[in-house]
Design a protein that fits this description.
This protein is mainly alpha-helical and 311 residues long. It contains 13 helices and no strands. The longest helix is centred in the N-terminal third of the chain and has 37 residues, at 2-38.
């Protein structure tokens, strides 16, 4: 009797731990899905017609994605009362989101799809881990450290692999700025998700970010947008790589740490590099292939968890 009585709380604790792990793993897959969609942005931009403006693409991406997310939040009645929102982190998240758009698309335009994506997202895990630790007290466990080391090492191999890849100093600086902005807005969004629904958070953040970027459309040449191909690219960027991906990202971020989410986002450069080879015909050597493999290994370390042993 005594053994059986002592065993029940243990099993209940095991079940609770198992359910928590299941939610974390499910959240990790949501973040991974978002990262894969983000990995298509550079390739989509590569199909834009000559004369396109990366600032315009970034602004329209936010605008279309924000309108779609806002429509969903209004339909589900999740916005609530505006006075219940903490506007400081909301505006900061929007500002970092807008900054990421400008830096990322400008970096891709200057230094290419592979390097722009790889350096931008490759610099984010360390910054994200530091921010999560300082502002949210998140523990940076051994699993995260191993995964982050593998992923960053893989990104380094990719960016230094030569071939058709061009290195532009200003483009690299812009890419690092994009990585820092990404880590910062992830931290802000994580805090907002503690009190508000994911659809509402992402709708307000993206819409405010779009408003902040509207001035960049002034005096810009928009003639290239009249082509059907341009419309298709902008709609893909707005609906798939912004609205849908942020919908997935917000749900994943509810159950995973900031540091884990940012590291999982390294699936983006892996996707971008793979699409660069398969779709754009970029020539990546054995060093680049090794880099992709190391990023993939780092993602596996975070996603594959041991199940609790039965007692």
């Amino acid at each position: 009797m005594q053994d059986g009585t002592a065993e029940k709380p243990l099993r209940k604790a095991d079940r609770k731990a198992f359910m928590t792990r299941e939610k974390t793993i499910s959240g990790a897959w949501f973040v991974l899905g978002a990262a894969v969609l983000w990995g298509t942005t550079g390739t989509a931009q590569a199909f834009a017609p000559s004369g396109y403006d990366p600032k315009v693409i970034g602004a329209l991406r936010l605008l279309i994605g924000g309108v779609a997310l806002l429509g969903l939040a209004l339909y589900r009645r999740e916005l609530g009362r505006l006075r219940d929102w903490n506007w400081q982190p909301l505006f900061l998240a929007a500002a970092f989101t807008a900054c990421y758009q400008l830096c990322f698309f400008a970096a891709v335009a200057k230094t290419g799809v592979a390097v722009g994506t790889i350096v931008g997202i490759g610099s984010a895990p360390v910054i994200g881990g530091f921010l999560g630790r300082v502002f949210r007290g998140e523990k940076l466990g051994r699993r995260w450290m191993i995964a982050t080391f593998l992923a960053i090492a893989g990104c380094s191999l990719l960016s230094l692999s030569g071939g058709d890849i061009a290195i532009d100093p200003i483009g690299i600086l812009l890419a690092v700025g994009a990585g820092a902005a990404y880590a910062a807005y992830t931290l802000m969004i994580k805090g907002l998700l503690d009190k508000h629904a994911p659809n509402a958070v992402m709708a307000l953040v993206v819409c405010l970010g779009a408003v902040l970027l509207l001035p960049v459309l002034v005096n810009c040449d928009l003639d290239w947008l009249l082509q059907p191909r341009s419309i298709g690219i902008v709609m893909h960027l707005g609906l798939a790589t912004m609205a849908l991906s942020y919908w997935l990202f917000a749900r994943g971020l509810q159950t995973v740490q900031v540091s884990t989410a940012v590291t999982l986002s390294l699936a983006e450069p892996m996707t971008a590099a793979t699409l660069g080879i398969a779709v754009l015909g970029e020539q990546l050597n054995i060093q680049a292939f090794t880099g992709i493999s190391m990023i993939f290994a780092g993602l596996v370390v975070l996603l594959v968890r041991r199940l609790p042993m039965r007692r």
